[in-house]
Design goal:
Layout lengths: L2 E3 L9 E5 H9 L7 E5 L4 E11 L2 E11 L7 E7 L5 H12 L3 E5 L10 H22 L6 E4 L3 H8 L4 E5 L8 H5 L6 E6 L7 H9 L3 E3 L11 H12 L5
Parallel strand pairs: 1-3, 6-7, 6-10, 7-8, 9-10, 9-11
Antiparallel strand pairs: 2-5, 3-4, 4-5
Helix pairs in contact: 2-3, 2-7
Length: 244
């Protein structure tokens, strides 16, 4: 069933309207009067609607029911990733959204090759948020993960460490596995952090440990920077029973 994200202000009462790009998308989908669609407020509520009318640049709908989204994981997991090269972050944003990430946070590391300036970062954030919105619609999410960019590794660590479970994944860690870490105690919020191409420095790992983050291994194989966060996210959601 077609799904559109709209502002909660548009969902007051028994009627709603699609405009602009969303109305154009409805036209591309060849929707007609009487067709059923789902509108999402981006905060976890879904509204089942029937298309009642079309006008230039606008689609009118009647709201028939509302319910909480069944696709949203109970575990709120944030994905932190050091700025990678090229469009790798776009891939991670899309797939992490599909898997169920609560937010995606990018930041510079010592070995980051990509270091976008403020002007280019504003444009990138706008594009990244659109990628998250599109992936949320495609995958049936009830929320659109927020995409953020922080100014430093230290800022990212301090923010990630506030989650009930926070883990930095380091290829040289040999003692603590992700499996052992997640089985230690229950948690409702999580933050997982991975580095860019070239990995993280020992100083960055110590910074994370000093902030209270656990340093974990994702196994004996070296994963690409765009593979590691998706692997960790999938594993932690599976351990929490969200992929069953």
């Amino acid at each position: 069933m077609p799904r559109f994200f709209v502002s909660s202000a548009m969902l007051q009462g028994s009627f709603a309207v699609l405009e602009g790009e969303q109305a154009a998308h409805a036209k591309v989908l060849r929707l007609g009067r009487g067709d059923e669609v789902i509108l999402c407020d981006g905060q976890g509520l879904e509204y089942r609607c029937i298309i009642s009318d079309f006008s230039p640049g606008q689609v009118s709908l009647v709201i028939h029911s509302q319910e909480a989204s069944r696709a949203e994981p109970r575990l709120q997991c944030s994905v932190y990733m050091g700025f990678p090269k090229a469009d790798k972050l776009e891939h991670v944003i899309q797939k992490a959204t599909e898997l169920g990430a609560a937010e995606i946070v990018a930041f510079p590391c010592d070995r980051s090759v990509s270091r976008p300036d403020r002007k280019s970062l504003e444009k990138k954030l706008e594009r990244w948020q659109k990628i998250a919105a599109s992936a949320a619609e495609q995958s049936g999410r009830g929320r659109i993960p927020e995409v953020l960019a922080l100014n430093s590794f230290a800022e990212a660590v301090q923010r990630a460490a506030q989650a009930e479970f926070s883990a930095l994944f380091y290829e040289n860690e040999r003692t603590l596995s992700l499996k052992a870490a997640v089985e230690a105690r229950p948690f409702a919020t999580a933050a997982i952090m991975t580095g860019p191409e070239g990995g993280l420095t020992e100083a960055e790992v110590r910074t994370a440990q000093d902030a209270g983050m656990q340093v974990c291994s994702l196994g004996p194989r070296i994963l690409r920077c765009e593979t590691a966060p998706l692997c960790a996210l999938s594993a932690i959601l599976y351990a929490a029973g969200e992929l069953a």
